[in-house]
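Input record (one chain):
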Amino acid sequence: MASKRRQKLERKKSQAGNEQIAARREAFNDNLWKIGAPIAVSIILITAVYFGFFYELGAPNADGWKLEEAESGVIYSSEDYYDNGKLTFIEFFHTDCPHCQDQTEPLKEVYEEYGRNNTIDMFSIGGYKLSDQDTINDIESFKFKYTLEWPHLYDTNGELMRDYGFSSYPSMALIKDGEMVYTHSGELSYDELSKEIEKYK
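The corresponding structure, as predicted from the sequence alone:
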């Protein structure tokens, strides 16, 4: 008789224990939804704000090139300039583009201030196919007409400007340690160009 009573008591204890565990589990789940959901939403919002406003992706890498200088015939390679510790200034232009023609004066000032003394390396590149494509002779004549002293290179297949993400003239990029640290499409004054060069030189 005592054995049956003991078994009955043990079953009651076991049942009570199971009910207690179930109640705790239910309370935990309720608390998880009450507390966990807001925490998860907060984490998502904080992450979105961080990546949207504070996190900066690394600068895109600048594509390499090996191009002929229109006047001298010298072959220039980006390998000799993009990783030499100096800033490289690249301009994409078209000889018939009025904005490119106007841009020559500010670029002359940039060359006088930064290029002539080798503070920066400086190149203008033509040959991009838009409505028509410059020839190497067009680029040589342009350089002579505007008395431009820095190398003017010819892209024979006209793809390099597109590879750099540009589709209009003139377009400019500053490259430091193989990365494009600044890009712009459209005319810029000497002061605007100088301000950006000073940031990275």
